[in-house]
Hints:
By secondary structure, this protein is α/β, with parallel strands linked by helices. Helix content is 20%, strand content 36%.
Amino acid sequence: xxxxxxxxxxxxxxxxxxxxxxxxxxxxxxxxxxxxxxxxxxxxxxxxxxxxxxxxxxxxxxxxxxxxxxxxxxxxxxxxxxxxxxxxxxxxxxxxxxxxxxxxxxxxxxxxxxxxxxxxxxxxxxxxxxxxxxxxxxxxxxxxxxxxxxxxxxxxxxxxxxxxxx
Length: 166
């Protein structure tokens, strides 16, 4: 987790998140079955970007990397957004990732992780009342997600496709 000021691009690693204010751009690479969750308060221009790997931490003992999971990563990022002046009641979400990266393999082996990640993120956001404005989920290609905190715009770079703004 990193709280930043100033004009910069901030990289968000796998199983991590960052919170920043305008005019930062938060960028995460390698969204295959992982899901990128951008949360934004358009009034204070505070936003966060989370790169989750797995849907549910309850299946694991001694979880130390909370941002790795949707069920723990989303709440901790919201708390950091609050500390930066964001209001949870004004947050909106944009999502990307959740691909099926291992086509051709036994589905029991890969456990549809991209689909499960996407479903868990949607469920958590719905339960806490955060509206999803846009999403670019599924498919079978990796993505890069670029989140501009000055306006809430998210640009998706998908391998083999043109840029898409959501």
